[in-house]
Amino acid sequence: MVTRRSNLRLTNVICFLTKKNGLKCVTAELNDMLYAGEEEKEDLGKTFILAKNRVTGKVRLIEVGSALLKPILKVDNDTPQVLETSHLELSRKFGSKKQKQQMEQREKLKVNVETVTEQMQNVTQAISEDKLDLSSYNKSDSDDFYIPPIDRTADKPENVYDIDKILTEDQYEKIYSELEEKDYAAEYTPFIKSIATGKKLSNRQTVLAVYANSLLKYSVTMAKEVSKKNFVACTHSPTLNNIIQANFSVMTNGKRTRPTPYKDKALCHA
User: In the predicted model, is pLDDT for residue 78 greater than 90?
Assistant: First the structure.
């Protein structure tokens, strides 16, 4: 059981497995109201959060899920409201001490539907609707979405990827001209540095090294940084920056975002 404090009243949250279908069910008490809902299924994968121990520096992955909670409304339609009210009044006036306590408890447990509706409206007033462009997720069902053009019939490792299909000839030439006389190697990640240092790279290999390095950094950049208007994925080449933003992010309601599939795609291309 988890206890958390909201802006309304102290809330108790309980998670348990239902016997019928084995799904996780979450119940929460908010302002004397009971809310419940089952954990939503994730068909395409699982969601994890990364927790870091500040003392040891170690990290661990924790699987998380989400649940949509709805108020539990119990309305007894079999008992007429008039008879129920009369019964409560009689018990309150002439009943024993135990009966009076039972009636008080029953009154506390009664749910006023209008009050609940008003409460839900107040909670949701500050929530704004954000229409997501889900077309980008439809493309991510195939492996071809994540990896560069690949020759699946190649008999040698060096023939698996055709560098002529990763970028066009004009793009190679323009990007290399933008990289000339710039200290791009100083920003290499340790992985790219271990590959490129001490080797004589061709112009195209140099462009691909900077491309891969920019994608590695892009994949670990925080999402809120990517959504900024002045965000630059590659500071050494405007052309390469435009290519990265065009192929590894999407526009949602006039704002550039990087959904998880596009983040994974950037890492695979790197």
Answer: no
